[in-house]
Amino acid sequence: MKYFSLLTMLMLGQQVFASKAPVPVYKDKKALVESRVEDLLKRMTLDEKILQLNQQTVGDNNNPNNNGYQKPTFPAGIGSLIYFSSDPAFRNTVQKRAMEETRLGIPILFGYDVIHGFRTVYPISLAQGCSFNPELVREACTVAAKETKLSGIDWTFSPMIDVARDPRWGRVSEGYGEDPYTNGVFGVASVKGYQGKNLSDQYSIAACLKHYIGYSMSEGGRDYHYSEVSPQTLWDTFMVPYEAGVKAGAATLMSGFNDISGVPASANPYTLTEVLKNRWKHDGFVVSDWGSVEQLMAQGVAKDRKEAGLKAFMSGVEMDMVDDIYGQNLKQLIAEKKVPVAKINDAVRRILRVKFRLGLFDNPYTTIVDQRYLQPESKAVAEKLATESMVLLKNKDHALPLTGNVKQIALIGPLAKDQEDMLGNWAAHGDAKDAETVLDGFEKEFAGKAKINYAKGSEIDGTDESNFADAVAAAQKSDVIVVCLGEKKGWSGENTSRSNISLPAIQEKLVAELKKTGKPIIVVLANGRPLELVRLEPMANAIVEMWQPGVVGGSALASIISGRVNPSGKLDITFPLTTGQIPTYYDMRQSARPNSGKYQDISTEPLYWFGHGLSYTDFAYGAINLSAPKIHKNQKLVATVEVANTGGVAGKETALWYISSHASSISRPMKELKHFEKKEIAAGAKYVYKFEIDPMRDLSFPDADGKRHLESGDFVIMAGNQKIKFELLD
Ligand code: BGC
After folding, report:
1. Is ligand 1 within 6 A of the CB of residue 323?
2. How far is it, in rounded angstroms, from Cα 426 to Cα 179?
3. What positions does the domain Fibronectin type III-like occupy (predicted)?
4. What are 315-343's pLDDT values in tens digits?
């Protein structure tokens, strides 16, 4: 009896004690994030703090560029994991260890590369930019975020906003093209799509702006190589989208592999600390790129792993992706007084802040649902984006759309019945089996209207011409030839540089054979970079750039070919005439002798400039109107332009507004895109596009240290084929 009452008393006592024990502030859902961060930080040992600064991997690595770094095990209290699985239950098991088997129960942050969709793969980013429809991209990223979150992942290494001017560089496919402003607008749209209104919302994931910064300047387009970026170009071109993305609240950034004019991007105190943290006040964290801390040795700025860790950490890289240098060296570096504890605290604080903002402490586990992928509404967004991303490059004598009198269509080419390559590179957990082929799309679209005669014709690469005859036969019995050409998905993306951006000769030969039939030829391109089309273009009556369109690309393309949808994409990157023209981009600076210094062997003009894209209707731009011919620096100027749809069908037109100034204290690009708006205009209708010019935002320029200068003088504003001068007064 005594025994029982003693036990009862003890239990009661424990209960009384337990109910009185205060909940630590960091576990209190109602406390402010900053108070929770500080409370937790105070409780952490140095070892626990250092663990937060490390990222390892779990699951089967599906990236061939990144093998050989993984460790078989990881500590339960690791800061972050790259999660190669898509199984939410497995994540929950791993998370449970962190929550229940570590002293403080700090949740792990699970990251992964979700670049253009998780399972509902939508077009590659380079294509998305051509839609000039940021709202649609935001919606697509929202779809991706939901599928990602439901698969156990809290953080995507996206968007990539590296302004890219060299199509030999394979990663040109991962960003939004050659223009700084466009990369900024779409980077912001992605951040908003992924992160939602609030990072702690049920289906929000954290975004990561990458690869900070200048990575796309790798010399000769050779990936991972040295990048020569002058301070002026850094600010004019590369900082623009990053500043926009940081302002939009991107939770994290990734430091690049590249060496920026002698100071590698992953050991660069100027970009990582002075600009990002001190000036832009970014309070999230920076993760290195895969192994980019260790690679400081290869780049010749660190003699060993320890020095590499010291340089990266002190420059402002808070999390070490996979190479375990921070894990192995930071404690020693602190003991040697090379790394101050305050700097460790600052780094941990930044990582914890993101975890708290994501709500991971309060909801560490993933909810398991039955249907998370390829939902009809998700596919609808993917299809709409694919449709708006496609660009009608050429349409001689209205070869397109294929209307009623076309009864037989020869659908030919190595990409016509292809699923794998429709997805493009970095297709996350995309499955080729989900992807519609072009043939699927055509059969659906033209059912009961035209017969589709399919023949492969050739492989994407190689020399085998044995299937040419079948293709020619299919062409001969058809009214028109649609030939689908392009690249394998693995030909663009990381580590996929090309010295020549032509298509393989076999594809050009196939078209030459088909041309002999005398039938009209519609070339459809599926590729991840601008191509050299100098030999193909003259053989084609029409060319549609379909890019790598994702799971519903077949339907999207077919709807354009049939004319059910009017194409509305415009190029976000210039197509040079030949590879030798690289670099060619629209915002170059003026030559000293604009009419001279041309190539002797070819035209200096690219084949298709940034902004090029045709429609099945015609848009006529009226004169640009200004609210005043002159304004002072503290005033706003409103420019408007009326655009009439003078053709027979409705169409979407994007007005691209450019500014140029011809006499500044430093030379400026010939023109710079400052605003765009896409709008559907009914046949015969008009729409007035408007651009409200804020002088400091739109007319100023940065110096080599990012300070903005607004100088009075003459400016020209352009839209469509119209331009007008105005004056900025002091
Ligand atoms: C790429 C990054 C990617 C990372 C993680 C690296 O090789 O450069 O873009 O986010 O791997 O997969």
Report:
1. no
2. 22
3. 653-723
4. 999 999 999 999 999 999 999 999 999 99
